[in-house]
DUF5615 family PIN-like protein (Thermalbibacter longus), 110 residues
Amino acid sequence: MAEQLTFYLDEHVPRAVAEGLRRRGIDVLRAQEAGMLEAADEEHLALALREGRVVVTQDADFLRLHAAGRAHAGIVYAPQGTPIGAIIRGLMLIHDVLGPEDMVNHVEFL
């Protein structure tokens, strides 16, 4: 079986997103669980890269880091105000159709 995506949710993403993904069997790590509250965006990106996790965020600063050429295991960006159900459905679709190698240094928009 192909390797599955795992996600790292920064502190801007509601807890309900993590709970919804976990109910569907998806491996999720929240910034709060990793002891990364109020860490710099670069630190979040570095942790996720070390662990091979795709960053899920509603913080446009991650898009700037991507544009600046910072290496990452993938970023999924959902604009502020995106409904929780839409985020979960979008992440499930990404999880089902893309692998970790597809997401390296790649951004998906929800």
Observations:
- The chain has one domain: 7-109.
- Strands lie at 7-9, 28-30, 54-57, 75-77, 107-109.
- The longest helix spans residues 84-97.
